[in-house]
Amino acid sequence: MRNETPSKWKAATGWIRRLYDWTVQWAERPGGAWALFGIAFMESSFFPVPPDVLLLALSVGAPRRALWFACLCSAGSVAGGVFGYLIGHYAWEAVRGFFIPYVFSQAAFDRVATLYNDNAFVAILSAAFTPIPYKVFTVAAGVCGVNLGTLVVASALGRSARFFMVGGAVYWLGPRVKVWIERYFDWLAWALLVLGVGGFVALKYLR
Fold first, then answer.
1. What is the DSSP track for 137-203?
2. Is 119 helix (H, G, I), strand (E, B) or coil?
3. Which regions span the lipid bilayer (predicted)?
4. CA 92 from chain center: how many Å?
5. Range with lowest mean pLDDT among 32-36, 90-94, 158-162, 198-202
6. Could you tell me the pLDDT band of residue 51, with boundaries at 50, 70 and 90?
7. Which residue, 169, 110, 172, 167, is CA-closest to 143?
């Protein structure tokens, strides 16, 4: 049938679909918002799953709270960025064997260090807003001795713009977003995967 997604696609996106279904249920629970904060915090330093999926799911489940969820997600992400900075600044030699290669590659780390020699604020702002892997920038900022205030301001601007764009769209469009997501979820799941990979590719060529 024309509208059927190939079975391989369904298998590959099945775990994302289960995550989506599970996180939507948190929309009516008090702990859902704090789970979002925690995932945003961890993703900024070491956790591999971006908080966008949970933010979207919670917002779709409760559109009137979408801006509040975006606020929590932004705050958690910036706080996690500071945590990543502290890891890089004070504990890098102890944890380097874990972060490279399990969290990010040596090549990605070296590329970010080069970008910091040009303009640290622009580099962090770009990573905070785009699919470029943000955690590499927060940890590397601590290792390279980037000013902590630069990290906080650039992260706050970039992360807030990214997450409020998601939350704002759900807030203004309301239930219509949920219908659209349910209809095209498999395609959206693949788009998220492509963006994740694209972030690392973009990091290689970023000037």
1. HHHHHHHHT--HHHHHHHHHHHHHHHHHHHHHHHHHHTHHHHHHHHHHHHHHHHHHHHHHHHHHHHH
2. helix
3. 66-87, 136-156, 187-206
4. 22
5. 198-202
6. confident
7. 110
